[in-house]
Amino acid sequence: MVLPSSKPESSTPSQPIDRVAIVVMLILVVLIGVLLGSGERSAPRVRDFNWQDKYVGAEDTAFILNFNRPMDLESVKQNLQITPPLEGRMSWAGRRMAYTLNAPAPYGNAYEVRLQGAKDRFAAEVGNHAGLQPFVGRFRTRDRAFAYIGVEGEEEARLVLYNLTLQKKQILTPKELSVIDFKPYQ
Question: Looking at residue 69, what is its pLDDT?
Answer without folding.
Answer: 87
